Amino acid sequence: EFVALRLENSDGCSGRLQIFYNGTWGSVCSNSMTLNTVSLACKELGCGDGGSLETRLRYGRVSGPAWLDNVQCGERNSSFWQCPSAPWDPQSCDDLRDETHITCDGGHPEMLPDPLASCPNSTSCTDREKIRAVGGEDGCSGRVEVWHHGSWGTVCDDSWDMQDAEVACRQLGCGPAVSALHEAAFGMGQGPIWLEQVECRGTERSLQDCWARPGDSGACQHKEDAAVHCSGEVFSPTYPTRDRLTNSGRVSLPTIIFIILGALLCLLLALLAGQVLSARAGRR
User: Fold this and answer.
1) 14-21 and 66-68 strand pairing
2) Nearest to 230 by CA among 188, 187, 155, 170
3) Is 93 within the bounds of a domain?
4) How many alpha carbons lie under 13 Å from residue 175 in its C-beta half-sphere?
5) Is 134 found in the same domain as 199?
6) Among residues 34, 21, 25, 28, which one has the least CA distance to residue 92?
7) What parts of the sequence cross the membrane (predicted)?
8) Which residues are CB-contacts of 57 (< 8 A; sequence separation ≥ 6)?
9) Is 62 a domain residue?
10) Could you tell me the pTM of the whole model?
């Protein structure tokens, strides 16, 4: 499985340490947490070579699993992912005080895809406000752009597929995805390319919940900006009503096939009934 680190509810280099595992972001417990572990986490995040543990918890507990406990990085470990720990367990720490909160010494987190900064003119930015489709007609199709560290940026089309587009369309509030488009189908964007190699399962609530690489490798250019075309329909978990079917003005392909098969079945039953009646009449 893909794994990744982020500092959730933070300014980029301080906050709650979270790890992406098994398709979900979760916490890291602070038991046996050492400064070596904090330093390697900060290096992994691009936030300097060291840091400190926070004792005053400024961030409320979030829902979700607590994946790791007893992470013990030593001087011989060169990467956070090489450090020994307790087995992966979504119930590693149940107490808010056990969650790891760190502050890194420095670095420039502008190249990190998570967490995204507050959106314009909003004190509490929602996932819906962290994404937009640019270049289309109705906001449900266009070049995919995400808000991060005070500016809008694009998404590289490397590995961009229908699962990624499905998540983007859901986050946009535009229903199921129709197509995942490549090579700046709606024109080239400007500014940073925030995400590369996005790998969504298709069930995530937002692109920020998917695994992705920071867009700082230089391997992607704006001529490779990813785009989506969404259906524009918001589906409820219930069956469609008569009004929705009427307003849509069209019948889906499965419905047409079902009608045709139903008509053929009725015709076959009618022929069989005719043969039965004919046979009875012959016997009489």
Assistant:
1) unpaired
2) 170
3) yes
4) 14
5) yes
6) 28
7) 251-274
8) 96, 97, 99, 101
9) yes
10) 0.43
For 26-44, the pLDDT digits (tens) are 888 877 788 888 888 888 8
Q: Which residues contact 89 (CB under 8 A, 6 or more apart)?
A: 66, 67, 69
CATH number assigned to the domain comprising residue 186? 3.10.250.10
* Residue 169 pLDDT class (50, 70, 90 cuts): very high
Q: What angle do CA 153, 181, 251 make, to 5 degrees?
A: 125
Q: Examine the domain organization and report whether 226 and 132 are in the same domain.
A: yes
99 and 133 belong to one structural domain: no
Domain that holds residue 98: 4-104
Q: What is the DSSP secondary-structure string of the chain?
A: ---EEEEESSSSSEEEEEEEETTEEEEEB-TT--HHHHHHHHHHHTS-S-EEE-SS--S---SS-EEE------TT--SGGGS--SPP-TBS--SGGGB-EEEES---GGG--SSPPPPTT-SS--GGGGEEEEESSSSSEEEEEEEETTEEEEEB-TT--HHHHHHHHHHHT--SEEEEE-SSTT----S-EEEEEEE--S--SSGGGSEEEES-SS---GGGB-EEEE------SSPPPHHHHHHH-S--HHHHHHHHHHHHHHHHHHHHHHHHHHHHHHH-
**pLDDT per residue over 42-94, tens digit each?**
888 778 888 888 765 554 555 678 888 888 888 888 888 888 888 888 777 76
Structure tokens at 29: 């417990």
Note the pLDDT tens digit of each residue in 211-237. Answer: 888 766 667 888 889 999 998 865 443
Overall number of domains in the chain: 2
pLDDT averaged over every residue in the chain: 76
Amino acid at 279: A
Closest CA relative to residue 35, chosen from 24, 23, 46, 48: 48
Residue 122: its pLDDT value, please?
A: 46
